[in-house]
Amino acid sequence: MRRLIFLILYLFLTSVVFAQIQSEEITIYNKEIKLPGTLSYSKENTPLIIWVHGSGPVDRNGNQPAQNVNSNYIQQFRVAINTKNIAFFSYDKRTANKENSAFFKDTKIMDFASDAQAVVRHFKNKKIFSEIILIGHSQGALVAMFASKNTAKYISLAGAGATIDKILVQQISKNNPTLGEAAKQQFDTLRMKGKIEVINPFLISLFAKPMQSFWSAWMLLNPLEEIKKLTVPVLIIQGNKDLQVNIENAEALHAANLKSELVIIKNMNHVLKDIQKEEDNLSSYYKSTFPISEKLIETIVSFVKK
Protein backbone atom coordinates (compact mmCIF):
# COMPACT_ATOMS: atom_id res chain seq x y z
CA MET A 1 0.00 0.00 0.00
CA ARG A 2 2.81 2.42 0.87
CA ARG A 3 4.46 1.74 -2.47
CA LEU A 4 1.19 2.40 -4.29
CA ILE A 5 0.65 5.67 -2.42
CA PHE A 6 4.25 6.72 -3.14
CA LEU A 7 3.84 5.90 -6.84
CA ILE A 8 0.60 7.89 -7.11
CA LEU A 9 2.18 10.84 -5.30
CA TYR A 10 5.27 10.68 -7.54
CA LEU A 11 3.18 10.58 -10.72
CA PHE A 12 1.05 13.48 -9.49
CA LEU A 13 4.03 15.66 -8.62
CA THR A 14 5.75 14.80 -11.90
CA SER A 15 2.65 15.74 -13.89
CA VAL A 16 2.42 19.03 -12.00
CA VAL A 17 6.05 19.89 -12.86
CA PHE A 18 5.52 19.17 -16.56
CA ALA A 19 2.17 20.95 -16.55
CA GLN A 20 3.93 24.08 -15.34
CA ILE A 21 5.93 24.37 -18.59
CA GLN A 22 3.98 26.56 -20.97
CA SER A 23 4.71 26.50 -24.69
CA GLU A 24 3.72 29.10 -27.27
CA GLU A 25 4.24 29.17 -31.02
CA ILE A 26 5.28 32.70 -32.01
CA THR A 27 6.16 34.21 -35.38
CA ILE A 28 8.44 37.23 -35.22
CA TYR A 29 8.81 39.44 -38.28
CA ASN A 30 11.95 41.22 -39.42
CA LYS A 31 10.34 43.28 -42.18
CA GLU A 32 9.34 40.64 -44.77
CA ILE A 33 11.27 37.83 -43.09
CA LYS A 34 9.21 35.37 -41.04
CA LEU A 35 10.89 33.79 -38.02
CA PRO A 36 8.49 31.25 -36.49
CA GLY A 37 9.64 29.85 -33.17
CA THR A 38 8.73 28.25 -29.87
CA LEU A 39 8.71 29.97 -26.50
CA SER A 40 8.66 27.71 -23.44
CA TYR A 41 8.74 28.72 -19.79
CA SER A 42 7.46 27.77 -16.35
CA LYS A 43 6.48 31.29 -15.29
CA GLU A 44 6.97 34.94 -16.16
CA ASN A 45 9.62 37.25 -14.68
CA THR A 46 12.34 34.62 -15.07
CA PRO A 47 15.47 34.82 -17.29
CA LEU A 48 14.94 34.15 -20.99
CA ILE A 49 17.56 32.52 -23.19
CA ILE A 50 17.31 33.21 -26.94
CA TRP A 51 19.17 30.84 -29.25
CA VAL A 52 21.05 32.10 -32.33
CA HIS A 53 21.76 29.33 -34.86
CA GLY A 54 24.92 28.01 -36.44
CA SER A 55 25.58 27.41 -40.13
CA GLY A 56 23.03 25.97 -42.51
CA PRO A 57 19.22 26.03 -42.69
CA VAL A 58 18.75 25.02 -39.04
CA ASP A 59 15.26 24.84 -37.57
CA ARG A 60 14.24 25.71 -34.03
CA ASN A 61 15.03 22.17 -32.81
CA GLY A 62 18.54 22.03 -34.24
CA ASN A 63 17.70 19.89 -37.26
CA GLN A 64 18.28 20.16 -41.00
CA PRO A 65 15.89 17.61 -42.55
CA ALA A 66 17.14 18.14 -46.12
CA GLN A 67 20.64 17.12 -45.00
CA ASN A 68 19.30 14.33 -42.78
CA VAL A 69 20.73 16.11 -39.73
CA ASN A 70 18.35 15.19 -36.92
CA SER A 71 20.29 15.46 -33.69
CA ASN A 72 17.51 17.52 -32.04
CA TYR A 73 20.08 19.19 -29.80
CA ILE A 74 18.23 22.49 -29.38
CA GLN A 75 15.03 20.73 -28.36
CA GLN A 76 17.00 18.69 -25.83
CA PHE A 77 18.53 21.91 -24.55
CA ARG A 78 15.05 23.44 -24.24
CA VAL A 79 13.72 20.61 -22.11
CA ALA A 80 16.78 20.63 -19.84
CA ILE A 81 16.90 24.40 -19.36
CA ASN A 82 13.16 24.76 -18.73
CA THR A 83 13.42 22.40 -15.77
CA LYS A 84 15.83 24.91 -14.21
CA ASN A 85 13.20 27.65 -14.24
CA ILE A 86 14.74 29.43 -17.24
CA ALA A 87 12.61 30.42 -20.23
CA PHE A 88 13.78 29.56 -23.72
CA PHE A 89 13.05 30.75 -27.26
CA SER A 90 14.42 29.35 -30.49
CA TYR A 91 13.23 30.09 -34.00
CA ASP A 92 13.60 28.66 -37.47
CA LYS A 93 16.57 30.36 -39.11
CA ARG A 94 15.46 32.51 -42.04
CA THR A 95 17.03 29.99 -44.46
CA ALA A 96 15.11 27.12 -42.85
CA ASN A 97 11.74 28.71 -43.66
CA LYS A 98 10.71 28.26 -47.30
CA GLU A 99 8.41 31.26 -47.02
CA ASN A 100 11.57 33.39 -46.98
CA SER A 101 12.99 31.78 -50.14
CA ALA A 102 12.65 34.99 -52.20
CA PHE A 103 15.34 36.52 -49.98
CA PHE A 104 17.80 33.60 -49.85
CA LYS A 105 19.96 34.71 -52.78
CA ASP A 106 21.25 37.93 -51.25
CA THR A 107 21.45 36.78 -47.62
CA LYS A 108 24.57 37.84 -45.72
CA ILE A 109 25.79 37.21 -42.16
CA MET A 110 24.56 40.59 -40.97
CA ASP A 111 21.05 39.63 -42.11
CA PHE A 112 21.13 36.86 -39.51
CA ALA A 113 22.23 39.47 -36.97
CA SER A 114 19.31 41.66 -37.99
CA ASP A 115 16.96 38.71 -37.38
CA ALA A 116 18.42 38.13 -33.91
CA GLN A 117 18.04 41.83 -33.12
CA ALA A 118 14.37 41.67 -34.16
CA VAL A 119 13.81 38.73 -31.82
CA VAL A 120 15.50 40.56 -28.93
CA ARG A 121 13.38 43.67 -29.57
CA HIS A 122 10.21 41.57 -29.56
CA PHE A 123 10.84 40.23 -26.07
CA LYS A 124 12.25 43.49 -24.73
CA ASN A 125 9.01 45.19 -25.74
CA LYS A 126 6.88 42.45 -24.16
CA LYS A 127 8.62 42.91 -20.79
CA ILE A 128 7.58 39.42 -19.70
CA PHE A 129 10.95 38.13 -18.52
CA SER A 130 13.45 39.45 -16.00
CA GLU A 131 16.40 39.54 -18.40
CA ILE A 132 17.47 38.31 -21.84
CA ILE A 133 20.53 36.16 -22.49
CA LEU A 134 21.77 35.37 -25.99
CA ILE A 135 23.41 32.06 -26.84
CA GLY A 136 25.21 32.02 -30.16
CA HIS A 137 26.13 28.56 -31.44
CA SER A 138 28.95 28.12 -33.98
CA GLN A 139 28.29 30.73 -36.72
CA GLY A 140 25.67 32.14 -34.38
CA ALA A 141 28.34 33.02 -31.82
CA LEU A 142 29.54 35.81 -34.10
CA VAL A 143 26.00 36.74 -35.16
CA ALA A 144 24.88 37.05 -31.52
CA MET A 145 27.71 39.46 -30.73
CA PHE A 146 26.02 42.02 -32.97
CA ALA A 147 22.67 41.48 -31.24
CA SER A 148 23.88 41.57 -27.61
CA LYS A 149 23.70 45.33 -27.08
CA ASN A 150 20.30 45.25 -25.37
CA THR A 151 20.73 41.96 -23.54
CA ALA A 152 21.94 41.11 -20.03
CA LYS A 153 24.48 38.41 -20.90
CA TYR A 154 26.12 36.71 -23.88
CA ILE A 155 27.19 33.08 -24.32
CA SER A 156 29.50 31.85 -27.08
CA LEU A 157 28.99 28.15 -27.74
CA ALA A 158 31.53 26.53 -30.10
CA GLY A 159 32.29 29.95 -31.56
CA ALA A 160 35.10 30.66 -34.00
CA GLY A 161 38.17 32.55 -32.82
CA ALA A 162 39.25 33.71 -36.29
CA THR A 163 37.76 35.00 -39.53
CA ILE A 164 35.76 32.48 -41.56
CA ASP A 165 38.40 32.07 -44.29
CA LYS A 166 41.00 30.99 -41.72
CA ILE A 167 38.53 28.63 -40.04
CA LEU A 168 37.58 26.91 -43.29
CA VAL A 169 41.20 26.60 -44.40
CA GLN A 170 42.03 24.98 -41.05
CA GLN A 171 39.12 22.55 -41.37
CA ILE A 172 40.01 21.56 -44.93
CA SER A 173 43.74 21.30 -44.18
CA LYS A 174 43.04 18.93 -41.32
CA ASN A 175 41.96 16.26 -43.82
CA ASN A 176 43.82 17.42 -46.93
CA PRO A 177 46.73 19.90 -46.54
CA THR A 178 47.08 20.36 -50.32
CA LEU A 179 43.42 21.21 -50.74
CA GLY A 180 43.66 23.48 -47.69
CA GLU A 181 46.42 25.48 -49.40
CA ALA A 182 44.29 25.70 -52.54
CA ALA A 183 41.38 27.01 -50.45
CA LYS A 184 43.66 29.64 -48.92
CA GLN A 185 44.67 30.84 -52.38
CA GLN A 186 41.03 31.04 -53.45
CA PHE A 187 40.14 33.10 -50.38
CA ASP A 188 43.12 35.37 -51.05
CA THR A 189 41.86 35.93 -54.59
CA LEU A 190 38.37 36.65 -53.30
CA ARG A 191 39.76 39.16 -50.80
CA MET A 192 41.85 41.02 -53.37
CA LYS A 193 39.59 40.91 -56.43
CA GLY A 194 36.12 40.47 -54.92
CA LYS A 195 35.46 37.42 -57.07
CA ILE A 196 37.00 34.13 -58.19
CA GLU A 197 36.89 33.55 -61.92
CA VAL A 198 38.79 30.27 -62.01
CA ILE A 199 37.49 27.95 -59.29
CA ASN A 200 39.49 24.92 -58.19
CA PRO A 201 37.43 21.93 -59.41
CA PHE A 202 37.68 20.30 -55.98
CA LEU A 203 36.29 23.43 -54.30
CA ILE A 204 33.39 24.25 -56.63
CA SER A 205 30.73 23.62 -53.98
CA LEU A 206 32.50 26.01 -51.59
CA PHE A 207 33.29 28.82 -54.03
CA ALA A 208 30.34 28.63 -56.44
CA LYS A 209 29.48 32.11 -57.70
CA PRO A 210 26.32 32.47 -55.56
CA MET A 211 28.47 31.85 -52.45
CA GLN A 212 31.30 34.26 -53.23
CA SER A 213 29.58 37.44 -52.06
CA PHE A 214 28.46 35.61 -48.90
CA TRP A 215 32.07 34.67 -48.06
CA SER A 216 33.35 38.13 -48.99
CA ALA A 217 31.04 39.79 -46.48
CA TRP A 218 31.70 37.22 -43.75
CA MET A 219 35.49 37.44 -44.12
CA LEU A 220 35.36 41.08 -43.06
CA LEU A 221 33.96 40.19 -39.64
CA ASN A 222 36.56 39.27 -37.04
CA PRO A 223 35.10 37.66 -33.88
CA LEU A 224 38.18 38.66 -31.87
CA GLU A 225 37.52 42.31 -32.60
CA GLU A 226 33.78 42.04 -31.99
CA ILE A 227 34.02 40.24 -28.64
CA LYS A 228 36.25 43.06 -27.35
CA LYS A 229 33.33 45.45 -27.81
CA LEU A 230 30.94 43.52 -25.57
CA THR A 231 30.20 45.19 -22.24
CA VAL A 232 27.84 42.53 -20.88
CA PRO A 233 29.06 39.44 -18.95
CA VAL A 234 30.48 36.89 -21.39
CA LEU A 235 30.67 33.10 -21.10
CA ILE A 236 32.70 31.11 -23.65
CA ILE A 237 32.00 27.37 -23.84
CA GLN A 238 33.83 24.79 -25.93
CA GLY A 239 33.64 21.01 -26.03
CA ASN A 240 36.82 18.98 -26.34
CA LYS A 241 35.18 16.46 -28.70
CA ASP A 242 34.17 19.12 -31.24
CA LEU A 243 35.09 17.99 -34.77
CA GLN A 244 34.48 21.42 -36.32
CA VAL A 245 35.81 23.98 -33.83
CA ASN A 246 38.85 23.30 -31.68
CA ILE A 247 39.69 24.55 -28.19
CA GLU A 248 42.20 27.10 -29.53
CA ASN A 249 39.25 29.11 -30.88
CA ALA A 250 37.69 29.43 -27.43
CA GLU A 251 41.04 30.34 -25.92
CA ALA A 252 41.53 33.07 -28.54
CA LEU A 253 38.10 34.52 -27.80
CA HIS A 254 38.85 34.51 -24.08
CA ALA A 255 42.22 36.20 -24.63
CA ALA A 256 40.46 38.92 -26.63
CA ASN A 257 38.06 39.58 -23.75
CA LEU A 258 39.79 38.76 -20.49
CA LYS A 259 36.70 39.66 -18.48
CA SER A 260 34.97 36.65 -20.04
CA GLU A 261 34.61 33.25 -18.39
CA LEU A 262 36.01 30.25 -20.28
CA VAL A 263 34.74 26.71 -19.75
CA ILE A 264 36.00 23.64 -21.64
CA ILE A 265 33.55 20.76 -21.38
CA LYS A 266 34.90 17.25 -21.43
CA ASN A 267 33.35 14.84 -23.96
CA MET A 268 31.02 17.44 -25.52
CA ASN A 269 30.95 17.65 -29.32
CA HIS A 270 29.76 20.32 -31.77
CA VAL A 271 26.08 19.39 -31.45
CA LEU A 272 26.40 19.47 -27.66
CA LYS A 273 26.16 15.74 -27.13
CA ASP A 274 28.06 13.78 -24.50
CA ILE A 275 30.35 11.51 -26.53
CA GLN A 276 31.97 8.58 -24.77
CA LYS A 277 33.06 6.67 -27.90
CA GLU A 278 34.84 8.34 -30.82
CA GLU A 279 32.78 6.35 -33.33
CA ASP A 280 29.63 8.01 -31.94
CA ASN A 281 30.79 11.56 -32.62
CA LEU A 282 29.65 11.87 -36.23
CA SER A 283 26.68 9.55 -35.69
CA SER A 284 25.28 11.96 -33.10
CA TYR A 285 24.62 14.53 -35.86
CA TYR A 286 22.06 12.21 -37.42
CA LYS A 287 20.35 10.71 -34.38
CA SER A 288 18.49 12.24 -31.46
CA THR A 289 19.21 9.33 -29.15
CA PHE A 290 22.50 10.70 -27.84
CA PRO A 291 22.11 12.74 -24.62
CA ILE A 292 22.96 16.41 -24.38
CA SER A 293 25.88 17.27 -22.11
CA GLU A 294 24.73 17.65 -18.50
CA LYS A 295 27.82 19.72 -17.74
CA LEU A 296 26.72 22.18 -20.43
CA ILE A 297 23.38 22.71 -18.72
CA GLU A 298 25.01 23.07 -15.29
CA THR A 299 27.50 25.64 -16.64
CA ILE A 300 24.85 27.76 -18.36
CA VAL A 301 22.43 27.65 -15.43
CA SER A 302 25.18 28.80 -13.07
CA PHE A 303 26.10 31.70 -15.38
CA VAL A 304 22.50 32.78 -15.97
CA LYS A 305 21.60 32.77 -12.29
CA LYS A 306 24.68 34.67 -11.04
Question: Can you characterise this structure?
Answer:
This protein is α/β, with parallel strands linked by helices. It is built from twelve helices and eight strands. The model is unreliable at 10-19 (pLDDT under 50). The protein has helices at residues 2-19, 73-82, 109-126, 139-145, 164-175, 177-193, 204-207, 209-219, 223-228, 247-256, 280-283, 294-304, and strands at 22-30, 33-41, 47-52, 87-91, 131-137, 153-157, 234-239, 261-265.
Summarize this entry quickly.
The protein is an alpha/beta fold. It has helices at residues 2-19, 73-82, 109-126, 139-145, 164-175, 177-193, 204-207, 209-219, 223-228, 247-256, 280-283, 294-304, and strands at 22-30, 33-41, 47-52, 87-91, 131-137, 153-157, 234-239, 261-265.
* Through-space gap between termini: 44 Å
Q: Return Rg in Å.
A: 20 Å
Order of helices and strands: HEEEHEHEHEHHHHHEHEHH
Mean pLDDT: 92
Task: List the defining traits of the structure above.
306 residues, alpha/beta, 8-stranded mixed sheet, single chain, 17% strand, 12 helices
Topology readout:
Blueprint: H1 2-19, E1 22-30, E2 33-41, E3 47-52, H2 73-82, E4 87-91, H3 109-126, E5 131-137, H4 139-145, E6 153-157, H5 164-175, H6 177-193, H7 204-207, H8 209-219, H9 223-228, E7 234-239, H10 247-256, E8 261-265, H11 280-283, H12 294-304
